């Protein structure tokens, strides 16, 4: 049986620290701090969500100009708020600035828009981590390492190579570094039919040989035990029983082959 939400809640809490405490380390840079505060302070002064609730005239003018009410998509999320703002600035910048001027608030410069765009693109990788870790199909012990590894790779491939990326990557390695080297997590992912060795090959190819050897040993031992028992087993063919189903099929159809050969075949399947 898969270990579900307990491990994932812990991982989500830890990654939340990466997205908040560790990401804030980027503010140690004077240049990043200046750009961040300039853009974010305008967004914070905007306070359109509060203004809408207090002033029906403001609400009507926003709705008329932007064709939507400004609401936060998820709870108290800076990232989600920036995504909403970016969409407005991209698709309806003229009207957005008209609303700001009517409210006697500063408009966003090209530099502000560029910074907010980069911020959202980098933080989208963090948001996707939470989406995957809480997704029904992803909530399993085996998916944790591949999800962390995929997030690292996406951040390293980010178009915008700046301090926020470095701060987040440093935080991930500080908090998840041991997990990424943990053989139990590596094996859990490697035996999962959706992941296998794909993420490990991409993220840390030097570990593939070790994990492959252990996989073959584990499967060979399981094959030996089923052979000695001399009993046939039926599988429910569900995701959790795929490995044992494959073992049974190999034993029944390829009895003449060595256990080592069978183990290698299963590991590659």
TrEMBL record:
<protein>
    <submittedName>
        <fullName>XP_042229523.1uncharacterized protein LOC121871369</fullName>
    </submittedName>
</protein>
<dbReference type="InterPro" id="IPR012337">
    <property type="entry name" value="RNaseH-like_sf"/>
</dbReference>
């Amino acid at each position: 049986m898969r270990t579900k939400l307990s491990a994932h809640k812990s991982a989500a809490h830890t990654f939340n620290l990466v997205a908040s405490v560790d990401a804030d380390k980027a503010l140690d840079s004077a240049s990043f701090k200046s750009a961040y505060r300039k853009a974010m302070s305008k967004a914070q002064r905007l306070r359109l969500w509060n203004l809408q609730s207090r002033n029906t005239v403001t609400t009507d003018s926003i709705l008329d100009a932007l064709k939507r009410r400004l609401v936060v998509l998820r709870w108290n999320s800076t990232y989600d708020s920036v995504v909403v703002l970016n969409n407005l600035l991209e698709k309806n910048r003229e009207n957005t600035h008209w609303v700001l001027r009517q409210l006697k608030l500063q408009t966003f410069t090209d530099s502000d828009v560029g910074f907010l765009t980069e911020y959202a693109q980098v933080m989208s990788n963090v948001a996707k981590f939470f989406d995957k870790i809480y997704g029904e199909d992803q909530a399993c012990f085996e998916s944790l390492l591949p999800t962390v590894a995929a997030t690292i790779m996406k951040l390293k491939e980010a178009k915008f190579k700046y301090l926020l990326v470095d701060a987040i990557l440093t935080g991930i390695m500080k908090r998840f570094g041991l997990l990424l080297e943990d053989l139990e997590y590596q094996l859990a992912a490697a035996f999962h039919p959706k992941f296998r060795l794909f993420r490990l090959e991409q993220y840390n190819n030097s570990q593939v040989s070790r994990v492959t050897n252990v996989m073959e040993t584990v499967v060979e031992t399981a094959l030996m035990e089923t052979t000695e028992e001399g009993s046939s087993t039926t599988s429910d063919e569900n995701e959790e029983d795929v490995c044992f189903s494959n073992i049974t099929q190999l034993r029944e159809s390829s009895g003449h082959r060595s256990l080592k050969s069978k183990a290698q075949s299963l590991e590659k399947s």
